[in-house]
Amino acid sequence: MNMSDDTGLLLGELTRIADALERQYPADMKPEALVKADAYVWQSEVRKLVPVTKISRLDIGLLKGVNEQRDNLLSNTLGFVSGFPANNALLWGARGTGKSSLVKAVHGTVIERGYDLGLVEIHREDIADLPFLMSFLAQIDRYFIIFSDDLAFEGGESTYKSLKAALEGGIEGRPENIVFYATSNRRHLMPRQMMENERSTAINPSETTEETVSLSDRFGLWIGFHSIDQDTYLEMVDEYINFYNIKAGDIDVRHEALAWSIGRGSRSGRVAWQFITDLAARTKTSLRR
User: Fold this and answer.
1) Which of 16, 44, 152, 165 has its Cα between 20 and 30 A from that of 1?
2) Which CATH number fits domain 39-225: 3.40.50.300, 3.40.190.170, 3.30.70.1060, 3.30.70.20?
């Protein structure tokens, strides 16, 4: 091997190291370099916030059967962007009951009222990056909701400890310009079996149980979502029809909406929206606003 070959190998290795460092510490991950947007998604593989050009959300007035939940989360968020103390929020309950829709709708409502509030989504599998992300956003003169949808932890995972530490904020406390909102099907974010297994193998079982259960205690605001009754389900369908001006004609909407929910074995906001999507397609109605 001659000198030129050695030089080529060295340059290749240096390039590989530089690329790895760039992925871990990208040049544009500086507060002043962040593009202004209403929402972002955290991309863990490149350690970068990617702006979202169009947020998929419903008008808050279309969310039926969640009046108390809506008022609680909206009040907490408005207090937050007004500079008052605010709680991290855990929205928990049955699937399809409007948890993530409410977070996005509240964010949209607050923006419409003239507040500068960014929404940052971080996926459950990237929760280990949460402390880094919060430290980064804390440097920006703007309010942020960090949002994690369908958050839960399975047996053998330890990233929940990173979440606990990030929500507490360590010695400096949680940044004043950040709140963390999460949705989950579990009130305590962990399956009962995981909590029982950790308890059975611990030196001090009671302390281990408190360690796992106390994760949800980091959320000062718990908002429960439950299955809706038939009248509320039909009210959702009617509101969607009116809002999107769907001309149902001779279609028996009530009968078909109920049959749709029976076929799926549940009544929820998600099921109502899926029925409306089907109805809009049959009536050639656009659902874009």
Assistant:
1) 16
2) 3.40.50.300
